From TrEMBL, chain A:
Homology family: Belongs to the peptidase U62 family.
Residue ranges of coiled coil: none
Name recorded for this polypeptide: Peptidase
Signal peptide extent: none
Automatic annotation (TrEMBL), chain B:
Keyword annotations of the record: Hydrolase, Metalloprotease, Protease
GO biological process, one term: proteolysis
Record-given protein name: Modulator of DNA gyrase
Cellular component terms (Gene Ontology): cytosol
Protein's organism: Actinoallomurus iriomotensis
GO MF term list: metallopeptidase activity
Membrane-spanning parts: none
Domain Metalloprotease TldD/E C-terminal: 245-490
PANTHER family, A to Z: CONSERVED PROTEIN, UNCHARACTERIZED PROTEIN TLDD AND PMBA
Location of the Metalloprotease TldD/E N-terminal domain: 32-96
Stated family: Belongs to the peptidase U62 family.
Length: 459, 499
């Protein structure tokens, strides 16, 4: 079996068309899943995928296969070339990225990084102890732990050779009372599981389950609401994904300016909100160059290797940038700001913790997390979804009991204009989107008039 | 019946299986199964009739699943060598040993007859992977150009997802299955932009377990649908905003399939009802104590779970645990009577046999209990859609799915659609904008006054039903006739956004 570096060189060597991009992805993963204080499923996986993008004039053909052996590489290149010949011109055609515009990654020659079930060496015993403690305390623990390591090797016929090792991990822990009537959730992203405090997470959930011993029914309506960082991540991540420059310029998103163009420059929040991405953000490091296996409205295969730099999407409360390819940047006349695989929000000077914000609340709702979020109306980016695993009523600075769940209808864009207070930014895991996006840091937010559209009987 | 692709049957399927099964048995596994899969996917996307994405992605690999000392062990590999098969079997046993320390529930599987060697191929005529990309791109470009020729259409999107799935399964009991199925999801969308906003109109053709013939005239009239989309879009853009309130609804199968999926399909998964998905996908209000007694819906409601329906996306001969697929009642005359199960959950709940709902979405995924084609049955001599509409004084007729969301116990849901028509005195009176319907599952299904006849029945569905951690996606179809519901809450999405 060849190394990924050898495979990339081999594929480029077989290329007969005007250009060629080769991406070798080496991935390994380990996971544990548990329910009712017992393990339910587990697994270790490995995958190896080779993607060849052939460029013939303005046409591209992309073929991606798993488990390619050295004697199958030429077949893959030829399949991509046939696809390029058949496909017709690509609308995002552009010269390949050269060294001057390329990002930098790790040492090309190093072997791919790997993970294994050993990553849970410290975590699994701690989880076992948490199961035992939960059993003694008549609580049930559910959850999931996942660790993946992806090593990406990108080579192009323009001479680029870039690689990056990206670890991705997360833990979700859910505690329920034995009658399943009360439930609380906590989650965190992690690069290596050494920073996961299972006992601390379980203790926090116990506190929340105790809050739930007093039940208060509230009707649907608009409430002052404290969103924890994870829920802010739920909403901001979807907004980020909806910030494509091409669609905005085409007049088909919330960031389209009526009559033409985009809303870049518009004030979205009266607070000096900063929403940004940075491939080098401490603890949230991610691939520092474009890796596009296929073109889409927000990504172009021709941009493969392009350096990713820190970018402010919202700066001082104003929309500052949209997700761009070289093609859309030219079309819109805006800066070239491709998407980055992390997202952070900060409000300068905001230092309060979520607990501090609870203490400063006269009457409002404190959420745990949001779930099943879907777009209702793209014009306003209205989203619907549910509150889940604990909605608490805060009165005079204290949690006084657990409230029923609600279906909400809210727009993250509209919501930004109603943010009354932000707290200190911390690493956050989106409950809804963590399968795709784990690297976020968000502050807790106090939002006026959050729209709880109807009551949900679910608990 | 079509033949299994030779390039799949030429792989060393039996040799790898024998090596893995034998090694796991030698290591003391009580149960062992081996699954080798090749999944071919091709995605084509056009924007304004120009190619945006042409991507082929193939997966090939195998997995070994064991039960060792009452604990699951699962491992997957990609090198198709005997050594690798043995190594992955050892790894699966090792994972089971490590996991045993935190397993408190002994894994046992419901028995399944040994089926010996079986071959199954889905029902299709033309393998879409045999059609040149250029032909497919030209077809989508032609569809796009037809939309763009109308000056009320500002932009068009067209896409075609194609999947061919080969599964080889062998277990230590002696069942050996080799299967192949094909599915397509063609979609076109027209976008209209005017000074005060924008909107879209999407085709209603459902994804289907069919071949390329589906795009060229079999089972769907594309010419007719494409011709109407600009008119539908223009009418929607000019339509008045709905007044929120309570309305009678006539729901077309192009919309109702998704409501069935969320409020019945997921709610009657037994693993979910028992709490095994509690931390992620959620649980279900339809708990086992309600089986046989819960009035899920009105007397006209009959729901069947089925993995055998021709052209169904969940249809297959044998599931990923070697269980022969079946058809069974989930709701009969409105009463909740059945669940979907896999072998583990069937045994756990004292059932004699699984009804064949295990599915893994890739060679490296562990099988989960996944959804059958769960379908609402039409009334044998039931009314047409027009006859259902004629029975409504003040209501709304809904076509096409769009937005969906439901809570974690499957009570509270909210759906939008492609088109909402006002009904006045039994007749359609133009489109409405900004509508969404919101209800509680059992209230909604008990408000169903009538279902249409077989002439209104359509098999809808999706490729991307998500479940489990690590997340997996499964294709599934849901058949439905048109149906009449009384007194359902309609929201105005613009007002919900506070505008």
């Amino acid at each position: 079996m060849s190394t990924p570096q050898e495979t990339v060189e081999r594929a480029l060597g077989f290329s007969r068309t005007d250009g060629c991009i080769v991406i070798a992805d080496e991935s390994s993963g380990a996971n544990l899943r548990w329910a009712g204080n017992t393990l339910t499923t587990n697994g270790v996986t490995r995958s190896r995928r080779l993607t060849v993008i052939a460029i013939a004039g303005e046409s591209t053909g992309m073929v991606s296969r798993a488990g390619v052996t050295p004697d199958q590489v030429e077949d893959l290149v030829r399949a991509a070339e046939r696809s390029a010949e058949e496909s017709g011109p690509a609308e995002d055609a552009a010269p390949l990225i050269d060294a001057a515009r390329a990002g930098s990654g790790g040492a090309w020659d190093d072997p791919p990084a790997e993970t294994s079930v050993g990553v849970f060496e410290g975590f699994a015993p701690a989880l076992g102890e948490a199961f035992a403690a939960a059993q003694d305390d008549e609580r049930l623990l559910y959850g999931f732990a996942l660790h993946e390591m992806n090593s990406t090797f990108l080579g192009t016929s323009a001479g680029l050779r870039l690689r990056f090792d990206e670890p991705t991990g997360k833990v979700e822990l859910n505690a329920k009372s034995t009658d399943m009537a009360r439930s609380a959730w906590a989650g965190t992203g992690t690069a290596d599981f050494r920073d996961v405090d299972v006992a601390g997470m379980a203790a926090g959930l116990s506190t929340r389950l105790k809050w739930g011993e007093r039940r208060i029914d509230l009707p649907a309506g608009r409430y002052e609401t404290l969103l924890p960082p994870g829920s802010v991540s739920d909403l901001m991540t979807y907004m980020y994904w909806s910030a494509g420059a091409r669609d905005a310029n085409d007049g088909r998103t919330v960031f389209s300016r009526p009559g033409g163009g985009t809303r870049v420059g518009d004030t979205l929040s009266d607070l000096p909100v900063r929403l940004y991405s940075d491939p080098a953000a401490p603890g949230l490091e991610c691939t520092p160059f474009v890796v596009a296996h296929a073109s889409s409205r927000e990504a172009s295969v021709f941009d493969n290797g392009l350096a990713l730099n820190p970018v402010d999407w919202i700066s001082d409360g104003k929309l500052a940038a949209l997700l761009q390819t070289r093609q859309s940047a030219e079309l819109t006349g805006l800066s070239l700001t491709p998407g980055v695989d992390n997202l952070l929000m900060e409000v300068p000077g905001a230092t309060a913790s979520l607990d501090d914000m609870v203490a400063n609340t006269r009457r409002g709702l404190l959420l745990t997390c949001l779930w099943y979020i879907r777009e209702v109306d793209p014009q306003s980016l209205l989203l619907t979804g549910l509150t889940r695993d604990g909605v608490y009523l805060v009165e005079d600075g204290e949690v006084v009991g657990e409230v029923n769940n609600f279906r909400f209808n809210e727009s993250p864009v509209g919501l930004l204009s109603r943010v009354a207070e932000a707290g200190r930014t911390e690493r956050a895991l989106s409950r809804e989107w963590s399968e795709y996006f784990t690297r976020t840091a968000m502050p807790p937010l106090r939002v006026a008039d959050f729209n709880m559209s109807t009551v949900s009987k679910a608990n | 019946m079509r033949q299994i692709d030779q390039e799949f049957t030429a792989l060393p399927l039996r040799a790898l299986a024998d090596a893995a099964l034998s090694r796991a048995r030698d290591l003391g596994a009580e149960h062992v199964d081996f699954r080798l899969e090749r999944v071919r996917r091709q995605t084509l996307r056009l924007s304004d009739a120009r190619l945006e994405t042409a991507a082929d992605a193939d997966d090939l690999g195998f997995a070994v699943r064991v039960v060792k000392d009452g604990t699951w062990g699962f491992a997957a590999g990609i090198d198709l060598t005997l050594d690798a098969a043995v190594r992955v079997a050892e790894q699966a046993v090792e994972v089971a040993k490590v996991a045993a320390a935190i397993n408190r529930e002994r894994i046992e599987l419901a028995p399944e007859p040994v089926h010996g060697e079986r071959v199954w191929v889905s029902s299709y005529e033309v393998d879409p992977f045999s059609v040149p990309i250029a032909d497919k791109v030209e077809l989508l470009a032609d569809w796009s150009r037809r939309l763009l020729a109308d000056d009320r259409v500002a932009h068009s999107d067209a896409s075609l997802l194609q999947v061919k799935e080969n599964k080889f399964y062998a277990d230590a009991a002696g069942t050996v299955t080799t299967q192949q199925r094909v599915r397509l999801a063609p979609v076109v969308t027209a976008v209209g932009v005017h000074e005060s906003g924008f909107d879209t109109m999407r085709s209603l053709a459902p994804p289907a377990g069919r071949g390329y013939e589906y795009l060229t005239g079999t089972a769907w009239d594309w010419d007719a649908e494409l011709a109407r989309i600009p008119d539908y879009l223009a009418e929607k853009l000019a339509a008045p905003s709905v007044e929120a309130g309570v309305y009678d609804l006539v729901i077309d199968p192009s919309n109702l399939w998704l409501t069935i999926h969320e409020s019945i399909g997921h709610a009657t998964e037994l693993d979910r009802a028992l709490g095994y998905e509690a931390a992620y996908a959620g649980t279900s209000f339809a708990t086992p104590d309600k089986l046989g007694s819960l009035q899920y819906g009105s007397k006209v409601m009959n729901i069947v779970g089925d993995r055998t329906a021709e052209h169904g996306l969940s249809t297959i001969g044998y599931d990923d645990e070697g269980v022969e697929t079946q058809s069974w009642d989930i709701v009969r005359d409105g009463r909740f009577v059945g669940y979907q199960t896999d072998r583990r959950i069937a045994h756990l709940t004292g059932r004699e046999r699984s009804n064949g709902c295990a599915f893994a979405d890739s060679p490296s995924s562990m099988p989960l209990q996944r959804m059958a084609n769960v379908s609402l049955q039409p009334a044998p001599d039931g009314p047409s859609t027009e006859e259902l509409i004629s029975g409504v004084d003040r209501g709304i007729y809904i076509l096409g799915d769009k937005s969906w969301s439901i809570d974690m116990q499957r009570y509270n849901f909210q759906f939008t659609g492609q088109r909402f028509y006002k009904i006045e005195n039994g007749r359609l009176a133009g489109q409405l904008r900004d509508a969404a319907y919101q209800a509680v599952t059992t209230d909604f299904w008990n408000s169903m006054e009538a279902v249409g006849g077989p002439q209104t029945y359509v098999l809808g569905g999706a490729f991307n039903c998500g479940k489990g951690q690590p997340g997996q996606v499964a294709p599934v179809s849901h058949g439905a006739p048109s149906a009449l519901f009384r007194g359902v809450n309609i929201l105005n999405a613009v007002k919900e956004a506070g505008q």
